[in-house]
Amino acid sequence: MRALWFAIVGCLAFLTALDIGAASANAATIVALGASNTYGKGVARNQAYPAQLEVILRAKGLNVRIVNAGINGDTTEGMLQRLDRAVPNGTRAVILQPGGNDRRKGSPDRTADIQSRLSARGIKVIMLANGMLGGLPHQPDGVHLTPEGYHMLAEQLASQVSGSIGR
């Protein structure tokens, strides 16, 4: 009897793993492209807004995969240069957070070029303007969000992202 129970549990675990694998394979890919507030500077990877956004959308029944393509200190020039590597074919939408590094580093703002290239590939762009970070809880540096701030940002973005992928 015990062997039968283990066999049943094993089969259920296998079927669950197959279902999860199929769901992941069919998931709509969304790329979060940006600088340190996309990367999640100062917090654990699972506390950055892209990871929290994926959890929120999955809890709402959406089969999504959010890829965090944020790099601390990146400029829009850097984002443009790595765009094809960071945003694979089949990506449904990009959350673009240009950040403030262009101004700080004296680099040209290439946001329009990024948007144009993504649009030409049929990828929807959701702009995460720096103004969306105002009023949210920040770390002591006053620039980067706390885990709670990233969660609040993810909540704000959830309906926009789900709408952009038609769900």
Automatic annotation (TrEMBL):
UniProt GO molecular function: phosphatidylcholine lysophospholipase activity
Region forming the signal peptide: 1-27
Entry-linked InterPro entries: Ester_Hydrolysis_Enzymes (IPR051532), SGNH_hydro (IPR013830), SGNH_hydro_sf (IPR036514)
Start and end residues of each SGNH hydrolase-type esterase domain: 32-125
Protein's name in the database: Acyl-CoA thioesterase
Keywords noted in UniProt: Signal
Species name: Bradyrhizobium uaiense
Domain of life: Bacteria
One Pfam family it belongs to: Lipase_GDSL_2
